[in-house]
TrEMBL record:
Family: Belongs to the neurexin family.
Domain Fibrinogen C-terminal: start-end pairs: 557-609
Name listed for the protein in its UniProt record: Contactin associated protein family member 5
Parts of the chain that traverse the membrane: 1200-1225
Start and end residues of each F5/8 type C domain: 1-148
Domain of life: Eukaryota
Occurrences of domain EGF-like (ranges): 521-558, 920-958
Disulfide bonds: 892-919
Length: 1268
């Protein structure tokens, strides 16, 4: 099925020189050419098992190929692959972009298509493998190969030999080393070279399980505290009997280690920079001194080519028998190639190899080697003779299993090994004699497994390796598990090797979906495409990434699970707290833990460091400075990304001093300074400007001594300070502070650097081209009213990437990476051109192409296992249109990120016709985040919630405003009169209020109490009408309307006792004549008034009404004690009286009488006795205190501390005496009041006052009550 063309016999007779066709091609190396022959090659059968092999006579460097079709015919190849070999055995596929490369062939019989190879091949044999051909014809091919001669020095090590390179002096000490070589081997272990010194220095390059390890130690390993050993492992599957290149470059501690095309850069451990080697370097093994041929570790078995150490050609010296080289054992200078033929099982379902055996032999003997990445797969099946059953050998969960099944007997099962899907070669040997069967793994007879069968075992005549044919009737082959995908070699049956080349030629056995004479295994975890620390694992056809505990998700751990800024968390409706932010998204920087302080006007990002308190400094001078480095538990790159993406950043710098100078102004050398970004020293202090050696007081001309520009520079005996904000972003964060003037008598200082604080995300509202990447992700927000348009496009010669809104309900992500265009489309159930912000994220990696729109289901398309890995894009990135200026986008785009990098759309928009920076209309998308009547207000780069007309506050108007009322507490809000009215207004003059009829009442409040009766809310008018909300004596809720026409209307909610120390929410809504009352979000009552004329409101009171002369008896009873408990979030139409009393008491028309303490009603339900009335006033998570004055207790002497303790003890004694005196006085006063009240309200004495006297006294005495 294949033909071999040897150029030495065919060039003169069957090839013609077509080099004139390529005169315009400039190849870097063209000292030889093969030639195309006149007619061309066409096999008898056109299928994928055909190939054309070229023998170039010797190893050469191949740089280009060219093809034509068969002369004067319709036979030509449209696509082909290349393989190369040194020996005509054990072929290797030509790869490009880490995939088997498919070359574009011809489109007719006569035109020539040439390809310059991206990576040259060094080989003697070259194969052309037709993959596709003209549909109307057959395979037809003429070829030409371009290249140049290749010379090399080769040494062959037989596993018992080595070359010793001896130095001219006893010790070779080097600061720089360069070692380069190429090697090939079938063994997975062996030392390639080694050198060591008596001080403990060493360098070793060693094959370990098919990977290359470099061990390096610079320094004295004899010292117990030394930790200078460095080991780096690179490469995989290096025992494939193909050439692999190695380059080691060391300069001092910096090392570049390259295996094939993969390089790892690292620094050696320890303090030493030089490598000290004694006497010699050993290549091929580590001989034991005095015992030639004896090695400490397994030595190398294979060939080494072009071995250079610091410019010295080691093999050339050995060939010329120079005295510097001492040869141990038998080293030859040509590469002996083992004639081993590997095979590859390609298909997961159809691959198999059938080999014949000798039937009815008493016993069984089969052996082979395999390597794979799959945990499961059938290795061998055979039908035993004389009805002795079936024998199966297979992998299950990475273990080797042997099973003998016979219908009349129990199955016999043996298992061996673990993790045999590690990609390494493993040998299997099965031997059976009579009733005993032995399974040996990796030639380890000591661990071989044995079993005994009832019946004798007789060999069969057919052995199926890797799988079974589809036709069970003919084969009787059973496969209880999946087919094997991997490589096999060295197959022996009945102790006879099987020639797999005969299988390939069709004269031995049978097969399906095999690659014969090559092992196509590939390590898909090299290079490791799992990002951000994801752990790579693989099967034969793909790889997997374990993203647990990385902070990233996705097929390659590419996407961060965290938002990029506090601004983004705010737009999820989140409130202040600790969050992880990932400033560069899918970029290389990891997530950073910050505190997001989400306030009404700004969103602050705060990053704390390791020295938060005020730190005292003494005894520091210029010769012995005080130095403190600040650790932010993050990298400098992470902090820089946070700062760069913010609109504003600051750090407070405070220096408290007593006879300790700071900047030594006006002209002296500073005594203190701080270090910022890039390790740069700065000589200005907080509140000043960069480059100006001053403090804040110097800039403001407010220093204590105007001769100096810092308060501390006055060098006074008393404490003072210089405090201000460092706000120049390019210098932040502060990483170190240095102080040098606290070593004089009575000299003392204390310093504090605040957390890094930033606000504003320049990119989140920010309404180029791709590099060649294996992963690409794009995310942005858009809003539009257009029917369609292209968001962005980037083109290459063939590759492209495009995202567009293809219809009002469809977003399409199109990408071409060499395997044909791929389209991922997400369909939305609702229109996306609704002029609201929508989120789009598109990603392409080695495993998947995905598209996410808002929270709709993600569209994921699996990528092919083989093909282009990298996007080849070389044009500009077009945002809002295409390269052809067609299908432009009409609308807004913001927060555009490419691979985690933010694009500044606003700056580009300023220079682009037809594009405007910024985009209005954010409230259309985010207005629903403003709650409880808060109003969404547009900003240039976002929005904020205006809570002016809401009873709540906070960034989303969701934080309650509540207060603790005591007996007698009154909050009265006075409404502005609609017209000027005299105090002696008569009934006739009341006509001026006719236009002031209130059309509606929207009342809402929350309360918590254990006291009845209580007056919660009272509204009165200039017409002596009122609306009252009271708790009756039995705990029921009453809403009382007193109207001039309808008289008194009472609405009672008696569904329970509302004075039960639980928080209740009441809503009273009147729209015209319709009244609706809700309690705890449950509709309790509806009523229609016959006529409503509630008008001219005078005032609204919470708690006790002080002007009680006009109250009716029931309201007056409730008003006896007003309200004792907690009121929260009180709203009357657009008025918030409680909020006005707490937040704007000097501006709002509100009067407070009695004690009113801000509290939290919700927390009081859960709080203990000691925290029921705690006032929450600080929102700083780091416990900031007032730093306007020095914390003198932190910096004063020990004697001051002792004096403070004495003062506290005296203060406590006085407090105890005062409390006892007040208790005796109030006990007496309470007795008098009880007598007085008994005369006024005798009916309430037992039932009401006594029942709640404990609660009332508790609140009024110490403001602490345990509400449950």
């Amino acid at each position: 099925s294949a033909e071999l063309l040897k150029l030495s016999s065919l060039m003169e007779t069957t090839f013609i020189n077509l080099s004139t066709l390529f005169t315009s091609i400039n190849f870097s190396c063209s000292s030889f050419e093969t030639h195309m022959f006149t007619g061309g090659w066409s096999p008898l059968e056109s299928n994928e098992q055909q190939w054309l092999q070229v023998d170039l006579g010797d190893r050469v460097e191949i740089v280009a190929v060219a093809t034509q079709g068969r002369y004067g015919s319709s036979d030509w190849v449209t696509g082909y692959a290349l393989m190369f070999s040194d020996t005509g055995r054990n072929w290797k596929q030509y790869r490009q972009d880490d995939a088997v490369w498919v070359f574009t062939g011809n489109s007719n019989a006569d035109s020539v298509v040439h390809h310059k190879l991206l990576h040259s091949m060094k080989a003697r044999f070259l194969r052309f493998i037709p993959l596709k051909w003209n549909v109307g014809g057959r395979i037809g091919l003429r070829v030409e190969v371009f290249g140049c001669s290749y010379k090399s020095d080769i040494a062959d090590f037989d596993g018992r030999s080595s070359l010793l390179y001896r130095f001219n002096q006893k010790l070779m000490s080097t600061f720089k080393d360069v070692v380069s070589l190429k090697f090939k081997s079938m063994q997975g272990d062996g030392v390639l070279f080694h050198g060591e010194g008596q001080r403990g220095d060493y360098i070793t390059l060693e094959l370990q399980k098919g990977k290359l390890s470099l061990h390096l130690n610079l320094g004295d390993s004899n010292l117990h505290f030394s930790n200078s050993h460095t080991s780096v492992t690179l490469g995989s599957l290096l025992d494939d009997q193909h050439w692999h290149s190695v380059l080691i470059e060391r300069f001092n501690k910096q090392v570049n280690f390259t295996v094939d095309k993969h390089t790892q850069h690292f620094r050696t451990k320890g303090d030493s920079d030089h490598l000290d080697i004694d006497y010699e370097l050993s290549f091929g093994g580590i001989p034991v001194p005095g015992k030639p041929g004896t090695f400490q570790r397994k030595n190398f078995h294979g060939c080494v080519e072009n071995l250079y150490y610091n410019g010295v050609n080691i093999i050339d010296l050995a060939k010329r028998r120079k005295p510097q080289i001492y040869t141990v054992g038998n080293v030859t200078f040509s590469c002996s190639e083992p004639q081993i033929v590997p095979i590859t099982f390609v298909s997961a379902s159809r691959s198999y190899l059938l080999l014949p055996g000798t039937a009815q032999i008493d016993g069984l003997s089969v052996s082979f080697q395999f390597r794979t990445w799959n945990k499961d797969g059938l290795l061998l099946f055979t039908e035993l003779s004389e009805n002795s059953g079936h024998l199966l050998v297979y992998l299950h969960g990475g273990r080797l299993m042997l099973l003998i099944q016979k219908e009349t007997e129990n199955p016999v099962e043996i298992s061996e090994g673990t993790n045999l899907h590690d990609g390494l070669w493993h040998s299997v040997n099965i031997n059976a004699r009579r009733h005993r069967i032995t399974l040996t793994l990796d030639s380890d007879a000591a661990t071989a497994s044995h079993a005994t069968t009832v019946s004798r075992i007789y060999s069969g005549n057919s052995y199926y390796f890797g799988g079974c044919p589809d036709n069970f009737t003919d084969s009787q082959c059973l496969n209880p598990i999946t087919a094997f995908q991997g490589c096999m070699r060295l197959i022996f049956i009945d102790n006879q090797p099987k020639d797999l080349i005969l299988v390939q030629q069709g004269s031995l056995g049978n097969f399906s979906d095999l690659h014969i004479d090559l092992c196509g295994i590939k390590d898909r975890c090299l290079p490791d495409y799992c990002e951000h620390g994801g752990k790579c694992s693989q099967s034969w056809s793909t790889f997997y990434c374990d993203c647990n505990n990385t902070g990233y998700v996705g097929a390659t751990c590419h996407n961060s699970v965290y938002e990029q800024s506090c601004e983004a968390y705010r737009h999820q409706g989140r409130t202040s707290g600790f969050f992880y932010i990932d400033s560069d998204g899918s970029g290389p920087l990891g997530p950073l833990r910050v505190f997001c302080n989400i306030t009404e006007d700004k969103i602050w990002t705060e990053v704390q460091h390791n020295s938060t308190g005020l730190t005292r400094v003494q005894g520091a001078g210029p010769e012995k400075p005080y130095t403190m480095s600040l650790n932010y538990s993050s990298s400098a790159e992470q902090l820089e990304a946070v700062i760069n993406s913010a609109e504003y950043c600051e750090q407070e710098a405070a220096y408290y001093c007593r006879k300790s100078r700071l900047l030594n102004t006006p002209n002296g050398v500073p005594f203190a300074w701080w270090v910022g970004r890039a390790n740069e020293k700065h000589l200005y202090w907080g509140g000043s400007l960069p480059g100006i050696q001053q403090c804040a007081c110097g800039l403001e001309e407010s220093c204590l001594d105007m001769r100096y520009f810092c308060n501390c520079d006055a060098d006074r005996e008393e404490w003072t300070n210089d405090t201000g904000l460092l706000a120049f972003k390019d210098h932040l964060p502060v990483t170190q502070i240095v102080i040098t003037d606290t070593n004089r008598s009575n000299s003392e200082a204390a310093w504090k650097i605040g957390p890094l604080r930033c606000h504003g995300d320049r990119q989140f509202w920010n309404a180029a081209s791709f590099n060649t990447e294996v992963s690409a992700d794009i995310s942005f927000f858009f809003k539009t009213t257009a029917l369609s348009g292209v968001f962005l496009e980037n083109l290459g010669i063939k590759d492209f990437i495009r995202i567009e809104i293809s219809s009002p309900k469809e977003i399409t992500f199109s990408i071409e990476v060499g395997n044909g265009p791929t389209e991922a489309t997400v369909q939305s159930p609702t229109a996306l051109n609704d002029n609201q912000w929508h989120y789009v994220r598109a990603e392409r990696n080695l495993k998947q192409t995905s598209l996410q729109v808002d929270n709709l289901p993600k569209k994921v398309l699996e990528a092919p296992a083989e093909g282009h890995f990298r996007l080849q894009l070389n044009s500009q990135l077009f945002v809002g249109g295409t390269a052809s200026r067609q299908k432009g986008f009409l609308g807004c785009i913001r927060s555009l990120h490419l691979n985690g990098q933010k694009l500044d759309l606003e700056e580009r928009a300023k220079m682009t016709p037809g594009v405007k920076p910024g985009c209005p209309g954010h409230c259309s998308s985010y207005g629903n985040l403003c709650h409880n009547g808060g109003k969404c207000v547009e900003k240039y780069n976002g929005y904020f919630c205006d809570c002016t007309n809401s009873a709540y506050e906070g960034p989303f108007c969701k934080e309650e405003v509540s207060a603790l009322f005591e007996a007698g507490t009154s909050v009265t809000y006075t409404f502005q009169e609609p017209y000027p009215v005299t105090k002696n207004a008569s009934t006739s003059s009341s006509a001026i209020y006719v236009d002031a009829v209130v059309a509606k009442e929207n009342i809402a409040l929350s309360f918590l109490t254990a006291h009845t009766p209580s007056l919660l809310l009272y509204i009165n008018t200039y017409f002596h009408e009122y609306l009252a909300v009271i708790l009756s004596k039995n705990g029921s809720l009453q809403v009382r309307y007193k109207l001039s026409k309808d008289g008194l209307l009472i609405f009672t909610i008696d569904s329970g006792n509302f004075a039960n120390r639980e928080l209740h929410r009441v809503k009273i809504n009147r729209e015209g004549r319709e009244l609706v009352i809700q309690v705890d979000q449950v509709l309790k009552l509806k009523h229609n008034f016959s006529e409503i004329d509630f008008k001219a409101i005078k005032s609204l009171t919470l708690g006790k009404v002080t002007d009680s002369l006009s109250l009716d008896p029931e309201v007056s009873k409730a008003n006896a004690y007003g309200f004792t408990g907690c009121l929260s979030s009180v709203q009357y139409n657009h008025i918030s009286p409680l909020k006005a009393a707490l937040r704007h008491p000097s501006v709002a028309p509100v009067t407070v009488q009695g004690s009113l303490t801000e509290s939290s009603c919700a927390s009081m339900m859960e709080a203990d006795v000691n925290t029921a009335t705690t006032t929450y006033s600080s929102s700083d998570p780091f416990g900031k205190t007032d730093e306007r004055e020095p914390l003198t207790n932190a910096v004063r002497s020990d004697s001051a501390v002792i004096g403070g303790v004495i003062a506290v003890v005296i203060f406590i004694i006085f407090c105890i005496i005062a409390i006892m005196s007040r208790f005796l006085y109030q006990h007496k006063q309470a007795h008098r009041n009880s007598q007085k009240k008994e005369k006024e309200y005798p009916e309430n004495l037992e039932s009401s006052f006594k029942a709640d006297i404990d609660l009332q006294n508790t609140v009024s005495e110490c403001k602490r009550e345990y509400f449950i």
